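Entry for the shared binder. Reason: the reviewer on the internal report wants the predicted structure included alongside the sequence.
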Amino acid sequence: MTARAWSALEAAHRHDASARLPLLVADGGLLRHAGSVARAHVAALRRWPGVLQVDDQAVTLRCSADMRSRQLAAINTQLHADGLVRGWRSETYALPALDDGRPLAAIERAAARFWGSLTFGAHCNGYVAGADGRPMQLWIARRSDTKPTDPGQLDNLIGGGVPLGQSPAACVRREGWEEAGLTPAQMAGLRPGRRIALLRDVAEGLQREQLSVYDLALPAGLQPRNQDGEVQAITLMPVDRALACAADGAMTVDATLATLDFALRHGLLPAAEAELLAARAAPLWLGRASLDP
């Protein structure tokens, strides 16, 4: 395992800041930093001069607070028609200020990476423990080939984006049914791991995300079953095999980071390797995930 790269640790913060301009929101006489836009897309935004001020320094949204969400919805619809906003989720995310997290508007989920806005994710490592309580097997999902992001790649048992108005813990409990067919009673043992920061260039734009990681011990013999069609298979893997998949890049970046967090907290890696990986991962750690509903 020591020879494996765990390349997701570098991918999580692989970002060319010079290729993007700040996204600012005029808010009560202040300019609030809310994300960033690729310089290659700036010309497309000049079509809305009454709403977006575009110059060589920044893209600034200027409209009344009660019109921001409506104006962004119209802009995002056109950007989607132009192929600049990839996919469409019909899910609402916040557009938060980056300094204090206060929501400034609501936007379509698929547009968040175009605008480089802060998003929130929640992943859960579902596992089966041995008689001593030590994790022996991990449930690993394979994403549907039709997913708009990371199609066909390996993933944690549960994972999803946190919509506006929902906490990461509530999100992972909801996704527990949709992705694995787990009832609230079966999710009662949910335990928090770490929160992890990602800032990386992706095909859709920029993933600026805080990922909350959770663990869930499941009884031997229970077979998770996907309900929403977003997962094509769920496999129970020995821990060593699951960690090898993560280390070798077979998992999504998000899932790899969540799996590594699980491995480090449960002492599943050789001590010397764990020490090196913990040092590499430490800059990504934001603290502990919350179980607040």
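Summary line for the report: The first helix runs from residue 8 to 11.
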